[in-house]
Design brief:
The protein is an alpha/beta fold. The protein folds into 2 domains: 26-78 and 182-252 and 343-410, FAD/NAD(P)-binding domain; 116-178 and 253-336, D-Amino Acid Oxidase, Chain A, domain 2 (2-Layer Sandwich). Helix content is 29%, strand content 25%. It has 11 helices and 18 strands. The protein has helices at 6-13, 42-55, 87-106, 125-140, 150-156, 182-195, 239-245, 308-321, 370-383, 397-400, 407-410; strands at 32-38, 60-63, 79-80, 118-122, 146-148, 170-174, 178-179, 199-201, 206-212, 215-221, 224-233, 253-264, 272-275, 280-284, 289-296, 330-340, 347-350, 356-360. The strands form 3 sheets. Strands 1, 2, 8, 9, 10, 11, 17 and 18 form an 8-stranded mixed β-sheet that branches. Strands 5-6-4-13-14-15-12-16 form an 8-stranded mixed β-sheet. Strands 3-7 form a two-stranded antiparallel sheet. β14 (280-284) and β15 form a beta hairpin. The radius of gyration is 21 Å and the shape is globular. 51% of the residues are buried. It binds flavin-adenine dinucleotide. Flavin-adenine dinucleotide is lined by residues 38-44, 63-66, 70-73, 75-79, 205-206, 234-236, 238, 242, 257-259, 293, 336, 338, 362, 364-368, 413-414. Belongs to the SoxB family.
Length: 414
């Protein structure tokens, strides 16, 4: 594989950049694979990459019904943080954060991980008590976290309106948190997985999951039957549809979640601001657009668009917090289908079908977990048992009641 570096950039510039290799192959499906991953979003591609890199599995395919990285991976607002409340969640997200910190070097692809900090605003005394509790819990878990006063917030964002209808009483702040470039994450993992021999099969929708004697044997796809010893479902909003093909049910609801971007502005917004109370979050992309996320639509559905009143409410909240933006024009709006679990935590583990594994339930907040999720899922598939990091996130918890309630830290989409 061609290596990206300053030297290869210089070398290629003399030939008008016509000598770059394709970033990944488009192979024909083989008849049989050791592992087939369903879903070429960031999580599926990361799973395939770590299966090859960490576990030496080379006969691996990723099947994708559309184009790679066209699902929620390409539709999210790219916030990366690890300041969850409970130990199990914090450790899983923190594993991911550590992988983010070395990811561009590891996969030799600039994922533009920018640790510009993430702020969670508190608008009431109860918000502030919750913030203090979470910051303490984070520190006990070795995760950086601090409480900001309104004055500290204003120093960072001089144009914030602290005295709006929802007064800003303070915020939690994780300095190592930030944003990454979502497309680059999908492309980088795809390129790195392909370099390890993983076949990425696009336009290859899974239409059926074949089982024999309670074990998975292969997949009926738009490109024919593909035999597989193991299958990993990593399909976000469509996970329940795939589970149904395999004869079991998931405790998930699929909801539309929206985001929108403004026209590009000069650099003005140096961090990421989230507010659970007013259901809005905002950052600025490297291109200059304000990237704004809304709350989820309350109805379940698979249409990749959302209700108008949700984004209208979001923009009202943003303008109240940042009146300066009242005349900025919005450029584009879109929706994705998020897979919401009852405790706002993911499901990563084995299923009732032998050889079939599931990774889903990331809901509104799985982008930040992309490398960690792929890493833990690869271990689970390769070893046929969960890694200690994802043991608590198995399907069993919905039977034995060991839920990990992260509604407080997840709350609004993020
Ligand atoms: C508007 C919005 C904002 C968000 N903001 C954030 C944020 O700021 N931070 C954060 O951490 N998270 C955020 N999220 C959540 C995050 O995007 C997701 O949790 C994460 O991207 C899920 O990644 P994935 O790889 O599992 O899913 P996806 O990228 O959706 O990949 C799943 C893939 O499976 C494919 N698939 C489905 N069915 C089949 C089939 N039958 N056969 C073959 N392939 C199939 C799909 O086409 C898709 O490409 C946001 C989500 C949305 C929608």
């Amino acid at each position: 594989m061609q290596k990206f570096s300053i030297w290869s950039l210089l070398r290629n510039s003399v030939s008008y950049h016509e000598g770059w290799q394709k970033q990944w192959r488009s192979p024909e499906p083989k008849r049989e694979y050791d592992v087939v991953v369903v879903g070429a979003g960031g999580h599926g591609l990361a799973t395939a990459y770590y299966l090859a890199k960490e576990h030496g599995l080379r006969n691996v395919a990723v099947v994708e019904r559309g184009w790679l990285g066209g699902g929620n991976t390409a539709r999210n607002t790219t916030i990366v943080r690890s300041n969850y409340l409970w130990d199990e969640a914090t450790q899983l997200y923190e594993k991911s954060m550590k992988l983010w910190e070395g990811l561009s070097q590891d996969i030799n692809y600039n994922v533009m991980f920018s640790q510009r900090g993430v702020m969670n605003l508190g608008h009431s005394l109860q918000d502030m008590r919750d913030i203090q509790r979470r910051v303490n819990a984070n520190r006990l878990n070795g995760v950086d976290a601090e409480v900001l006063s309104p004055q500290q917030i204003q120093e960072m964002l001089p144009f914030i309106n602290l005295g709006s209808r929802y007064p800003v009483l303070g915020a939690s702040f994780q300095r190592r948190a930030g944003v990454a470039r979502h497309d680059a994450v999908a492309w980088g993992f795809a390129r790195a997985a392909d370099a390890h021999g993983v076949d990425i099969l696009q336009n290859c929708e899974v239409k059926g999951i074949r089982r024999e004697g309670g074990a998975v044997v292969g997949l009926d796809t738009a490109r024919g039957f593909i035999r597989a010893r193991k299958v990993a479902i990593v399909a976000a909003g469509h996970s329940s549809v795939l589970a149904e093909m395999a004869g079991f049910r998931l405790p998930l609801e699929s909801h539309p979640l929206q985001a929108l971007v403004s026209e590009p502005l000069k650099p003005i917004f140096p961090t990421v601001v989230m507010s659970n109370a007013i259901h809005a979050y905002i950052s600025q992309s490297d291109k200059g657009d304000l990237v704004i996320g809304a709350g989820i639509d309350q109805y379940a559905g698979y249409g990749q668009r959302g209700s108008y009143h949700v984004i209208e409410g979001t923009l009202q909240a943003i303008v109240e917090l940042f009146p300066l933006f009242s005349r900025v024009r919005m450029n584009r709006q879109w929706g994705g289908i998020v897979d919401v679990s009852p405790d706002a935590c993911p499901i990563i583990g084995l299923t009732p079908v032998k050889g079939l594994y599931i990774n889903c339930g990331w809901g509104t907040g799985g982008f930040k977990a992309t490398p960690g999720s792929g890493w833990a899922m690869a271990y689970t598939v390769a070893q046929d048992r969960p890694h200690p990091l994802n043991e608590a996130f198995s399907l069993d918890r919905f039977y034995n009641g060991h839920l990990i309630d992260e509604h407080g830290a997840a709350a609004v989409a993020h």
